[in-house]
């Protein structure tokens, strides 16, 4: 059975849009896309009078090398959100198919499913926020086409062991596509599961440059998957997803100098995460600091709402995650610079005094 047998038949059969840039074959005078022949004013806009390559070769080269996959196993788009949306639209028939998630987790999986009018099957994480593989598999019905897992999980920070990921991929083969979201992997003590893609055609991995690579504003996300899945999603992807300035920012960030900077900042975040977790745990009014391998800490408070307002009054914005299951007393605090983290502790110490 091909993994494409899980996808919507009408998507497999459709004739994709063929953009003018895709049809260009190396000409020097480009008169096929109704673009302006003149560049815009200012150095920042140079080249922007022309539509960008749908999948820029230099960026694909850099990301394929970074993530350890073949070029045809990688799709670049506008953040991980676009890849999630494309997957749901390609694999889930409206009103018939479904996805499976494990709350509390990243909210966009369910949002994209509901926009598509696909069902959402929830298999909650345990009280310690670990994944129950057997419970997930027991909840899978024939309607479920996508199973999303987030590691390290957002908003709690715990990773999922590789053995559990592979168990899921193996058990779901021929039944559903397993989508592993590794948005925070650079901060964890674990390797990517992308090395399993050659073994399991029903495994897909989400990566992003928004977190560790400091490019949230550029909106560059990647999907790593079987080449047939990548080719299918390209059929329904908008023709020009990546603005030229964003591609330029990504290439600069992935240069030797950019990588050195990113790795140094990752080192600082990991050290500060440990320092902040220890310091927060000693404060009165803090019930628990959840273990995290991401660039944030989920912290339980006696009065989470009051703490949120006190921080906000001091100009510090954290994430209120009390609406998530089993996190009704929690705030999520991103690890900032050492100076920013020190300020958070100072305000909290004053608030708890």
Envelope shape = globular
Our count of helices gives 12
Question: What oligomerization state is this entry in?
Answer: single chain
Q: What's the number of domains? A: 2
Secondary-structure arrangement, i.e. CATH architecture of the largest domain? 3-Layer(aba) Sandwich
Q: In order across it, which strands form the biggest sheet? A: 1-7-6-5-4-2-3
Global mean pLDDT: 95
> How can the largest sheet be summarized?
7 strands, mixed
N-end to C-end Cα span: 63 Å
| Structural class category | alpha/beta
- How much helicity do the residues have? 25-40%
The CATH superfamily of the largest domain appears as: Type I PLP-dependent aspartate aminotransferase-like (Major domain)
Count all strands and give the number: 11
CATH class of the largest domain: Alpha Beta
Tag the structure with descriptive keywords.
353 residues; alpha/beta; Aspartate Aminotransferase, domain 2; Aspartate Aminotransferase, domain 1; four-stranded antiparallel β-sheet
At a glance:
The protein has 353 residues and is an alpha/beta fold. The protein has helices spanning 9-13, 20-23, 57-67, 79-91, 108-115, 133-139, 162-172, 227-236, 244-253, 256-281, 304-313, 338-352; strands spanning 74-78, 98-101, 119-122, 144-150, 177-181, 203-208, 220-225, 286-289, 296-301, 319-320, 330-334.
Note down, in words, how this protein is organized.
GO terms for molecular function: histidinol-phosphate transaminase activity. This is Histidinol-phosphate aminotransferase. Pathway: Amino-acid biosynthesis; L-histidine biosynthesis; L-histidine from 5-phospho-alpha-D-ribose 1-diphosphate: step 7/9. With 353 residues, the chain is α/β, with parallel strands linked by helices. It has two domains: 49-254, 3-Layer(aba) Sandwich (Aspartate Aminotransferase, domain 2); 258-352, Aspartate Aminotransferase, domain 1, CATH 3.90.1150. It is 37% helix and 15% strand. It has twelve helices and eleven strands. The chain has helices spanning 9-13, 20-23, 57-67, 79-91, 108-115, 133-139, 162-172, 227-236, 244-253, 256-281, 304-313, 338-352, and strands spanning 74-78, 98-101, 119-122, 144-150, 177-181, 203-208, 220-225, 286-289, 296-301, 319-320, 330-334. The strands form two sheets. A seven-stranded mixed β-sheet has the order 1-7-6-5-4-2-3, sandwiched between helices. Strands 8-9-11-10 form a four-stranded antiparallel β-sheet, covered by helices on one side. α4 crosses α5. The model has no long low-confidence stretch (mean pLDDT 95).
């Amino acid at each position: 059975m091909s993994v494409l047998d899980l996808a919507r038949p009408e998507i497999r059969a459709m004739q994709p849009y063929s953009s003018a840039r895709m049809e260009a074959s190396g000409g020097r005078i480009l008169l096929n896309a109704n673009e302006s022949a003149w560049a815009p004013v200012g150095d920042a806009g140079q080249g922007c009078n022309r539509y960008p390559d749908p999948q820029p070769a230099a960026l694909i080269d850099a990301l394929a090398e970074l993530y350890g996959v073949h070029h045809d196993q990688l799709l670049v788009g506008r953040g991980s959100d676009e890849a999630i949306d494309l997957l749901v639209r390609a694999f889930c028939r409206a009103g018939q198919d479904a996805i499976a998630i494990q709350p509390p987790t990243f909210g966009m999986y369910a949002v994209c499913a509901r926009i598509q009018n696909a069902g959402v099957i929830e298999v909650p994480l345990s009280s310690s926020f670990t994944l129950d593989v057997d419970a997930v598999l027991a909840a899978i019905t024939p309607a479920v086409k996508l199973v999303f897992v987030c590691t390290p999980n957002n908003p709690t920070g715990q990773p999922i062991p590789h053995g559990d990921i592979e168990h899921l991929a193996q058990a779901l083969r021929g039944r559903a596509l397993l989508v592993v979201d590794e948005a925070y992997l650079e901060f964890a003590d674990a390797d990517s599961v992308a090395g399993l893609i050659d073994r399991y055609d029903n495994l897909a991995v989400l990566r992003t440059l928004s977190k560790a690579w400091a490019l949230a504003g550029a909106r560059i996300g990647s999907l790593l998957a079987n080449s047939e899945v990548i080719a299918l999603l390209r059929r329904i992807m908008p023709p020009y997803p990546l603005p030229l300035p964003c591609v330029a920012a990504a290439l600069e960030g992935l240069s030797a100098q950019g990588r050195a900077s990113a790795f140094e900042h990752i080192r600082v975040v990991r050290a500060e995460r440990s320092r902040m977790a220890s310091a927060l745990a000693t404060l009165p009014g803090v019930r628990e600091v959840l273990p995290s391998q991401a660039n944030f800490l989920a912290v339980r408070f006696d009065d989470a709402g009051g703490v949120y307002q006190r921080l906000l009054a001091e100009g510090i914005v954290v994430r209120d995650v009390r609406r998530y299951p089993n996190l009704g007393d929690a705030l999520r605090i991103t690890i900032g610079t050492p100076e920013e983290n020190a300020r958070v502790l100072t305000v909290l110490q004053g608030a708890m005094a």
